[in-house]
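User: Working on a comparison across species. This one is YheC/YheD family protein from Mesobacillus zeae. Can you predict its structure so I can line it up against the others?
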Amino acid sequence: MNMVPESLGSSQDAAPIIAVLVHAKECNDSGPDFGSIHTFCREMFIHARQSGLLLYIFTLKGITDQGVHGYFLEEDMWVKKFFPFPHVVYNRLHSRRAETGKRFSEFMKLAEKANIQVFNNRFLNKWEVHQFLSSEQKLSTHLPETCLFSRTNLEKMLPCKNSVFIKPIHGSQGRKIIKLVYEDGIYRADFSAFPGESKMVFTSLEEVFERISLCLGKQHYIIQQGIPLLTLNGRTTDFRVLCHRGKNLSWGVTSTVARLSEKGHFVANLARGGESIRPMKALFPLFGIEKAKEIAAHLNALATHAAECVSAKAPGLTGELGVDIGADIAGDLWIIEVNSKPSKDFEVHATKVRPSAKAIIECSQGLFHNQPR
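Assistant: Here's the predicted structure for YheC/YheD family protein from Mesobacillus zeae:
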């Protein structure tokens, strides 16, 4: 096994060695496949190299007592080498099961012992995020009413709110969300975010609860108040604001996009057939230039505040968060979700290295130089 090039390894005392923890599929001819973040890994590597830093990609299987078997980009091909332990690790494992497994637990113990800074060390669930945000008064006014799913809570909330969303607390990418609308004694349930499911009509809450419970199984869900979000050409619209810590570890906005649902669907997520456009393209036709600028500025400020709150209250280190915000017809903003493993597919960028890839490197430098505890 090749060792990391001496010219790169020799700078480790002056600058951080950065590593990205991923799932990888070995492909004999084309090298490893890093899944949905494959291109993003390449961009991070390029920017790190341009900044004079060593970055490598690794999996839990690559960790040894002496160092790490990981991947390094050479002539546009990922090759396997043996590396020293990193100073900073960006966790991009996409499996909650992996993060609760023995290998990850052993890795975190090693990281603590070796003083390795690991950021975004686990997924956050929707219920704990709601509790974090609702504890701050300035943020709580921007939260849809939310509670854990139960028959009692459904009976209390639905008649008052007319529409609710039932979401898995560990869900992502708009999967397994149910939209429930109550009007004139009729309950209309939209299961279109479930594989093979569709829309159904019920005449009693008992029928609704039984059908929904059948879909939910043993998973934990929340009930979230339905907000009448903006629509553009008949497509539900919300906003994804990507936030990162910078070199001084303060939070800021890296990019913002508007997300439009597929027509006839209520989830504005690219994984569910949605589309991303620049925020002003969504806001200007609905509000005019001045109001649109005001809302866009408020979006960024609210997302930054939410990121600061979540990172302060969540266990471990957090360096990246995706904040999903909806706007209603009055232009009021609502925090829908905060994600600790935001998708990289939605960003609108025209450069070789997208801003969020650069932001990960800057965050890693900040963690290395500031060494928070």
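For your comparison, note: The longest strand covers residues 235-245.

User: Helpful, thanks.
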